[in-house]
Amino acid sequence: MQKRLGVVFVLIISLLLVQGAFAGGQQEKGSDVQGDAVEFTWWTLTGGGGAEDPRINLREEIIADYIEEHPNVKIDHVPLENEAFKQKVQVAIQAGDPPDLFHSWGGGVMIEYAEAGMLTEITERVKNDFSNRIGMGALGVYGYDGKYYGVPYDMGAVGMWYNKAIFNEAGVEIPETWPELLDVVQKIDDAGYIPIALGAGDRWPAHFWWVYLAMRMGGQEAFNAAYSGSGSFADEPFVAAGEKLLELKALDPFQEGYLGADQNQQAALMGNGKAAMELMGQWAPPTQEANSDDGEGLGDDLGWFSFPSVPGGAGSLDDVMGGGNGYVVGKDAPEEAIDFLSFVLQKEYNQRMIKSDGIIPVVEGAEEALKGENMQKIANTVANADYFQLYYDQFLPPAVGETVKDAVVNLLAEQASPAEAAQMIQDSWEMEQ
Amino acid sequence: MNTRIDSQKAHIKLKESLMIIMLVAPALIIFTTFVVIPVIQAGYYSFFKWKGLGPLNDFRGIENFIRAFNHPVFITALMNNLKIVFLSLFLQLPTAFLLALLIGRKGFFGSMVFRGLYFFPYVLAEIVVGIIWKFIYDPQYGIPTFFARLIKGGDIQIGLLGNLDYAFTAIFIVIFWKYIGFHMILYIAGLQGVPKELEDAAVIDGANKFQVVLYVIIPSMWSAIIISVFLSVIGSFNVFDIVWAMGQGGPVHSTETLVTYLYNFGFKRFAFGYGSAIAIIIFFLCLIFNIFYQKYVVAEK
């Protein structure tokens, strides 16, 4: 009997030990340096396409090329699907064990990681190396307070996508100012089409409208003032942005039920030629194609123009809101990981990512490989931007980003006035300080 | 001699208790690791302002709980859950009971077909149901739009999920449709335990059909009803997937439930302390209901 009791105890104890071993294994991982041999981890995003994913293949190839030059380096490449990545990285960060090089969209979430001490600052490298090939506007998405933690490989802009055929039928030109846009909306409505497709159920497509209006009204100064605390998100330009949005809403430009629609429904209206315009990022064409009935979208009928300027506003037509993808450096990363990041960001690979990832490249000269007038326009717009604003919902701390999206939808649903919506954002901003 | 028997008895006793320990241990260890410890952890986190990163050092007492009950969206979420409980108990379960009475007995031609039809939605994953119904409610191609055009003609569009006044009702219809078959099956199982002789005796005594149901059938299948009510209430407090798939609690938080609220205001905003407080509130709501129900309803039986 004693013996059996003993067996049970041994079992329990060994169970605990095994558990302990797993926990220990987690902490010991990372860069273990053995003589000259260096090993580091690289977490990337896949397209979710399975085994023959062109994104994975390209990255494996880059690794092989790098190792050929640096045989002492071993790179542990972990390709992950979008949602799986977000969860896995969250867990790794909470455990205090971030990967050495990993995917990031920059902005507020990256800042949270940096402030928790989970990232390596690479400011020197950015200034001496990356800035020679990549514009400071795009790099700025991966920095704050003058410190940089990563580098983008993709940077696009949100802009107006429009259906040229509908514009022709309604007899309208591309609007360059807000009053012109309102006029275009009216004429397209008269022609029997939905002027603007909007998936406000997902909230972020709606927040694009308000943020662009705020940028056109207040320019970079208004945002910097609010961000630094010398001003506020309840200041006049942000309230005016809400008022302008309500001017548009008064024309009833969106499809029926837009408050409950998601981004795919928005894309379907464009792809099927039912709606004339949408405000969306560089990924709009493939999304429209995927959601259209014939799977082909609008083809050559799809055009792109910058968000119109607002008369009387402080912002310029060249100010751009956008965002993209990049990599940041984890806290325990060896020097080689940063060197490898520099290797990844060369023109050739960046050009090949256009096809494999569907990106707008950031490395100087890589944009030559972009196909189609719309993509060229977006790349030029990003390159020429003096003020490049990452989407608010990514740039601001997550709690504030969510509140911005809520506030804009509240505004559209007439549950908040422009002043109340702006105040909601300011309140949530103050809570985060 | 006596001592030998005693030691044998003790031996058997020890053997038995060891057996119990060994049989209970796996479940107990798993339950403790994955339920008890996380609940205690969440209870601890709920007193802090914490982003889920870095150390827990910003102790705020019960501030998170006060904030929740002062937040209009939280109140909306709580009220939505209570509405779901109320509508389930007084609309869904009686309907399920009526269906069970109609098709639960053998002999009715096609009863198996109807059972299958009503039960079918329960077999589908909740997220799938949500996505299917999102298509059904689509303002451009959906069924409400189709009928509106059929009746009124013209280019009408009905966007229920985008309408603050109708979105909750539209989602409740889906919940109703999804779970009614499950409760119907519970009642059918209960019905089969009702002795036919009892009913016959009641009829001979002059009871009409309504009285037979009220005084014979319902009391005889009380245990099925108790289980069904319990599962329905607890399920109502945990509604998430369907609401999430159909609109993430929107438009403007009008269809938010406690769990979608927890996700939107805890996870999405990196407010893990606050999210834990919400989780604790949900936990206690379920616990209080459970204790009350065990004590006054189950024990009563």
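Residues 159-321+391-432 of chain A form a domain with the D-Maltodextrin-Binding Protein; domain 2 fold (CATH 3.40.190.10).
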